[in-house]
Amino acid sequence: MRDAILSIRDRLDGFGVFLSGLCALHCLLGLILVPLIGLGGGVLLSPRIHEAGLALAIMVGVVTLGLSALRHGRLQPALIGALGIVLMALALGVGHGTREAVLTIAGVALVATAHLQNLRAAV
């Protein structure tokens, strides 16, 4: 049973890294690609996609980083992840645009770093 729980936690950390990458990609495409070529602006720049993605990333981050801190006792990944989650939450409140993208990218980079540290600590 313990191995199954650890496997789920590791998968959530992996999913957290993947989700962080998708958030960063969404922001970069919104800032660079869409204005340059005008493709998919209505979809890629939709605030609903951003809000849903950030909400999911925040939930996965809080659960996984908390469980990992309890498991391996290292607080550094949880603290780094918490800072990233705060930046992501701030991004939801600044409105769609460059500030939002900068906060989101910085936040997801920190959360992804924390997830990677958790995966390394689990080995």
Structure description:
This protein is mainly alpha-helical and 123 residues long. 89% of the residues lie in helices and 0% in strands. It is built from five helices and no strands. Helix 1 runs antiparallel to helix 5, helix 3 (47-72) packs antiparallel against helix 4 and helix 3 packs parallel to helix 5. The longest helix is centred in the first third of the chain and has 36 residues, at 2-37. It starts with a helix and ends with a helix. 31% of the residues are buried. The mean pLDDT is 75.
Ends apart, CA distance between termini: 18 Å
Give the number of helices. Answer: 5
Q: Give the low-confidence spans.
A: none
Q: Give the class from helix and strand content and strand pairing.
A: mainly alpha
Order of helices and strands: HHHHH
Short description:
With 123 residues, the chain is mainly alpha-helical. The protein has helices at residues 2-37, 41-44, 47-72, 76-93, 98-122.
